[in-house]
Design goal:
This protein has 524 residues and is an alpha+beta fold. Helix content is 21%, strand content 26%.
């Protein structure tokens, strides 16, 4: 075992020793799921120029085996038949981490594809395909990015993932709501599928929820196709939660949040550094989720966390079910300059990252903000302001725009999700003044499967009240695909014909380009 792998194992062991109870396994899935120890698939994530994270999670049907730690072998090869193995080793699947496996590879060649697999006894996992990023100083010729969010199980099959995998991206950015905490609704006539899991609140509940989602073959195929970089939103824990506050009793909510965060780590291809310090991790009270990934000199991707560090939503009653919307004239708190969506430390970090992207000139061609929701304002004809997204934190948005204006990167693109609608926007220096300079381009993608809850007539009215909005579409599920070169950024918005069908076809809704050093999307 090389030093990096040993260090990762010892970290995991120390974290596991801090836990006090053994999580129960309450599989509510078909028996076939438990017949294969690798039934939840494989994944990779957070590529660097010399490495990547490999992930799997053992499914153990035998209760006696579920109590034990298990040694899992892994292999990385140049070919899918593993005739040319370049690295191999062992990792420990600990029961107190849900028998998840995270292997942090180092020493790979930059800018190339690899195949990987896991082995346990006579069982072998599916073969995954992953890659490293280009070397730090290289001006890569291209990058194909997929971006997606929001995949509620009942609302649709995952045909979008099948099509995204076929599009052969280099990297997928998942922007939040990987799972939903809800039980199946009582009325099921218009649902694509159902499940028998209860409303999630415990570690076992959240583990089962991830297992449910990861049992989908289209999602497994997308994970196996390329590396992902993931962040979260609210439904990984609870709808509209904010930092350490949510619905219900505060102590119960914090226990729920800790369980949900642990399950997120166990089921995502993220690094051990995500866990923060061992002292904080012993209660799963903090996670280091915001981070940057570099794709040579072509792109610098900043993944943000807009849940863990935010202020409570403006004028929201304590412990209420959801954030809702307010009239600005009736909610002075909305304009409070101290309120934050990202938290002071993350704001300062992001501003510093963007300033570094701007100097020296040309060092980074495309600065990418991969975050949860729509950044641009939406002025509603009703006069109401939703409080859970950036519209509910106008001072925080203004600070980020000021940072972009003060030290503008060469090109800035914002990606988002959350709202289950496709939006394409020009990002102005002053959002309410269309005559001010355009600083960035925004593409906020629709959901993989989660329904919108609005109508196209309402979105058309919003677009008429917001001249910076170039496109606003609802009631279409899908994903975004960005083809990035030094000369231009091209976003293709892909939508599935019928999310109620697992074999649904897909088509292109729209395509936009952003030319180098010409901020603002243009119809292609």
């Amino acid at each position: 075992m090389n030093p990096a792998h040993r260090r990762s194992f010892l970290q995991h062991a120390a974290y596991a020793a801090a836990a006090t109870t053994l999580p129960r396994w309450a599989w509510s899935n078909p028996p076939s799921l438990a017949s294969d120890p690798f039934a939840l698939g494989v994944a990779s994530g957070d590529p660097t120029a010399d490495g990547v994270v490999l992930w799997t999670r053992l499914v153990l049907a035998d209760p006696a085996l579920a109590l034990l730690a298990h040694t899992v072998r892994w292999e990385v090869a140049h070919d899918a038949q593993f005739a040319q193995v370049v690295q191999k080793g062992e990792a420990t699947a600990l029961p107190l981490l849900g028998h998840s496996v995270h292997v942090e590879l180092q020493g790979l060649a930059p800018g190339r594809w690899y195949h990987y697999r896991f082995l346990w006894g006579a069982a072998a996992s599916a073969v995954g395909r992953t890659r490293t990023a280009p070397a730090a100083g290289d001006q890569a010729a291209s990058l194909r990015l997929g971006f997606a969010s929001c995949q509620r199980w009942e609302h649709g099959h995952y045909a979008a993932w099948r099509h995204l995998a076929a599009d052969a991206p280099d990297l997928v950015l998942f922007l939040g709501d990987y799972i939903y905490e809800y039980a199946t609704p009582k009325q099921t006539a218009d649902l694509a599928r159902t499940h028998t899991l209860r409303h999630a609140s415990t570690l076992a509940d959240y583990r089962d929820r991830y297992a449910l989602h990861k049992s989908d073959p289209a999602l497994q195929a997308a994970h196996a196709a390329c590396p992902w970089a993931v962040t979260w939103d609210d439904h990984e824990v609870q709808n509209d939660y904010a930092a350490g506050a949510g619905r219900g009793d505060p102590a119960h909510f914090m226990a729920q949040r800790s369980a949900a965060w642990q399950a997120f780590y166990e089921n995502m291809p993220v690094r051990a550094a995500t866990l923060g310090t061992p002292a904080a991790e012993s209660r799963w009270g903090a996670m280091q989720l915001y981070r940057s990934l570099r794709w040579g000199r072509l792109a610098h991707i900043h993944l943000l966390d807009s849940r863990q560090h935010r202020s409570w939503q403006a004028c929201r009653a304590p412990q209420s079910t959801s954030a809702g919307a307010v009239r600005a004239a009736d909610c002075a708190e909305l304009a409070d300059p101290a309120r934050t969506l990202l938290g002071p430390a993350q704001e300062q970090w992001l501003h510093a990252q963007l300033a570094a992207d701007a100097a020296p000139p040309g060092a980074t061609r495309w600065s990418v903000l991969a975050q949860q929701t729509l950044f641009s304002p939406r002025h509603y004809p009703s006069g109401l302001t939703p409080t859970d997204g950036w519209d509910g934190y106008p001072a925080a948005r203004a600070r980020l725009l000021q940072a972009l204006a003060r030290r503008p990167p060469r090109n800035t693109v914002l990606l988002g999700g959350d709202i289950h609608q496709n939006y394409v926007c020009r990002v102005h220096a002053q959002p309410d003044r269309a005559e001010t300079p355009v600083l960035a381009s925004e593409f906020c993608g629709t959901s993989i499967s989660s329904r919108s809850g609005t109508t196209q007539d309402k979105l058309d009215a919003i677009a008429r009240h917001n001249p910076h909005v170039l496109l606003a579409r609802c009631d279409q599920r899908g994903y975004g695909l960005a083809d990035v070169t030094p000369q231009r950024w091209t976003t293709t918005l892909r939508v599935v014909e019928d999310p109620l069908r697992a074999n649904s076809s897909a088509s292109t809704l729209a395509r936009f380009v952003v030319e180098d050093q010409r901020p603002g999307p243009q119809w292609a």
